Each structure stands twice: as structure tokens, then as C-alpha cells.
Amino acid sequence: MIALASHLDDLLAVLRASARLGPTAGSPGQVRAELADRLRPTDPELAARVRKLDDWHAEALADFVAEAHVLARALDRQPGGPMGDDTKVD
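^ that's the sequence the OP posted. Answer follows.
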């Protein structure tokens, strides 16, 4: 359980760092580099681990960030407003 909690903390740090990235912020390699650059000042160890991700994991990371942005947009929708009752996520 402790390992899961520490990994979730890392994922939360990555999500915070990705907050200003667009959901289609570029290629997985670009997303990896941008996130590592943003993490370096506050968590250099995590930044180094992100930078060392292989291409497959960089793609998974980019997908994770893109899906988080989609979910954030869905949570921002007002109930009953435009597309508020729509269960389909763009």
C-alpha cells in the first residue's frame, strides 16, 4: 500500500505539472521533456525518472495527461448547461 501511495503522489505531481499543457501538447517525447522540465525545480528526482521513460511509457504518459484534460473539462461542465447532460466525452 505504501508503494501505491508514493506512486499516486508522483502521478499527482505529474498532473499538476501538466496543468498548463494543452491536451494535445505535442508528441509523447515532447510531453515527456516538457513535464521533466516543469518538475525539475520542485522534484528533480521525479523529473529525472520522467526524462528516462522509454518511448512506450512516454506515450502512455502523454495519453494519461490528455485523458486527465478531457476528464477535467467534463467535470467543469455545469449540470443542465450545454452538454451538461451528455455522458459522451469528446
